[in-house]
Here is the input.
Amino acid sequence: MNRPRLIAFEVTRRCRFNCRHCRANAGTAGSEEELSTEQCKRILSSIAKFNKCVIILTGGEPTERDDVYELIRHGRAVFCHNLILLTRL
Ligand code: SF4
Here is the structure.
């Protein structure tokens, strides 16, 4: 089975911008279905167990999450630093 070399994990739909071209349909309202910190960490750990690929934290704007640095720390630990934060900031 071919394993992915790169996975983009959309950790939020929140974004302070409202670009017409936004592929993620992001906006200031966000979503009530946004995953918790622990849910995101569990997903990152599960992906890493399956495949130590490059992981991209994206959204929306991932820095809108208060826990973004915690997710980065966890992601860097389980993915052996193969983590990219994709942000407009
Ligand atoms: S996520 Fe990117 S493209 Fe979408 S609204 Fe925000 S800045 Fe614009």
The radius of gyration is 13 Å. Residues 1-27+53-89 form one domain. The longest helix spans residues 37-50.
